[in-house]
Fold:
Amino acid sequence: MSRRIKEGPPLSRERVLRAAVELADAGGIASLTIRSLAERLDVKPMSVYHHVANKEEILDGIVDQVFAEIELPRPGGDWRAEMRRRADSARRALRRHSWAIGLMESRATPGAASLHHHDTVLACLRTAGFSVEQTAHAYALLDSYIYGFAVQEAGLPFEGADTAGTVAEAIMEHFPEGAYPHLVEMAAQHITKPGYDFGNEFGFGLELILDGLASALH
Amino acid sequence: MSRRIKEGPPLSRERVLRAAVELADAGGIASLTIRSLAERLDVKPMSVYHHVANKEEILDGIVDQVFAEIELPRPGGDWRAEMRRRADSARRALRRHSWAIGLMESRATPGAASLHHHDTVLACLRTAGFSVEQTAHAYALLDSYIYGFAVQEAGLPFEGADTAGTVAEAIMEHFPEGAYPHLVEMAAQHITKPGYDFGNEFGFGLELILDGLASALH
DNA sequence: CGGCGTACCGTACTTAGTACGGTGATGGTA
DNA sequence: TACCATCACCGTACTAAGTACGGTACGCCG
Structure:
């Protein structure tokens, strides 16, 4: 140890990553800086570098943290139910940490939690009777849907039920008269309706995909 | 005009955005800086700011440029064929500009090309007989799939046919003995096979989705 | 009790975004 | 033609962020 005058637990890779996730959640990924991170941990910036090599490693790490939060399917269970549970859990995780999708694009080195997650999903599908090739198809499809849905949710200028209407109206104010008639129709007849929540669209697509996969399985 | 001693066309918002896309394509989004952009345009950094307000506006702009590259569906045509054409085109655009997905996550203000694109897709679905609500479902599903597939393609540590195998082997070298058995199986029996190309998975999911939508339409 | 490893830190360098205030050419006007 | 306003471009410099490099003190071991 060293100058451990401070109370509380010592710095560690885990504490650094946890704080990084909290900062990114609270203020967006741009607000996650080495300095802000150090301040939150009540240390000086350079101390962080004794637990991670650089910021890239922090970004890799917090993406893996998000994967660690996703409920794993149980191989051997009803594959539809397990895939649904995993998909819902993944969507919730990606909504809680909407910066994660943006990081995944640039990160080619998966962490341990990601690998374990992927392995378990594959296990579940293979156990359910999908061939290797069918599993590859199914997995690419399911994950594409989950990630893409997260992209859309993150890009939406509103979130949660009923907030969409007002925002949609504010945006459309700037439309030239008569422009984008189908967007306007969609807004008027669907999005601005009370109770509208984009998140509810997730279930429709997921069930459609699961139906399709089921018939591919026979 | 002013000190237009230089040959060539004057600076403009369009030239700035075009150069920004080229830089991001060539070196990743991180290599797109005001200074690198200015150098490419053969002007000094501060000159850029006479055509865009700030870097955020550039990022908004290049995302919209990507949307502008996507082939629009023709409302009134065969909706399946049109949706397929649009989806393939979108996937190619997002693969050419793999930084785009990462930007979409943080960008809540769509540009003119995006709006026009979305409006046209909605038009095509509505014309094909989908109700407003069905159109909302279909659109969320299709775009989720397209975006999510792009996320996965961008995150892959390899690209193109036959390059996956060697990379997969290199990654698995670092696995503990016996770890991730299903990932290993997938790699051994599918990914490392000659001719494997993750991009080929796109068609499977797309057709499954279109089938499902067709039966929802009746 | 002296030396050493470890955990933390001070300083400073580099790169990036961009605020602020020029500066000179051009085109319009008297 | 003389003037001037405007507009496109730029020089300088400030702030913030990542991080290299070399301390520095605490506790432990011998």
